[in-house]
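Quick illustration, no need to memorize.
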Amino acid sequence: MELTVPSHNSLLGDLSELDSWLAGMGVPARSSDRIHQLIELLRGLKPSGPALTITREEQRQYMYALAELVEFHQIFTWLKQDDPAVLRPKLMRSLSGSLDPADESANNNVGRNTIFELSLASEWRRAGLKVVIGEPDLQLILGRQEFVVECKRPFDWTGIVRCLKDAKRQLRRSAARATAGAPKGVIAISLSKIVARGERIFLADSMADKSGLGEIIESELEANRWRWGNDVQFDDSIAGVLFHLSLPADVGKGDHFALLSFSNVYQAGSNREALALLNQAMEPLYRDSTPSLMKVHALGS
């Protein structure tokens, strides 16, 4: 199978500054950490011409390595000015885990769980939103309204209820309140591990087809809502639940490769005013010119 890799050298070139940035953040760079192993994997597949002949399994490994490095590059680009005291422990956790996402288990998933939090922050910041990283995981500030965000990345569908309940409890501790003007909560849940398992490649004719990720989210939720049913109740302190999916993509049958992501936002409590503000801020900012697209469901859906 032929794999075209037009951005291979430029990505490796940009990541050459990674060690100095990590050092500046107080994070010791180790050749054995997950990100440096991914860089070495990519270098090992460096093409000598316009295309590279590899097996289907090597293609999967290569595309996931490329996608995870693109994700980390986005974090490096958009969070590099953040306070080292806040970012350091998160970066140290993010470097852990298995090299191959297909080998990820509940015992070694902390690294990719943390990457989801940092990646979502970098996506929103790139889109022009004001995001603060800390505790809670993220603070999203839209004018005078503050949203406190807890990020969860369940290992399988059985963990969804636990994630929703844990996030709701954490948001209440983080001052999410139903009263007017008080911070409102947002629960961000990554479905990437559940849906992809380190195996799935998204096939797209063009970058515009990334809206198909939103259809995958909708289909997966429709098939699995029975798992939590009425077990989780939300009050007006929670503005919405965001389900996020990120997949490596083959765009145009090998024309180029990308990391595509998409989010569906669902109403939680009955606080339509807070949800409308969240929708209004996000919907216009996620266009095809950005690395992801936000799909916001109509109120009451």
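The chain has one domain: 2-296.
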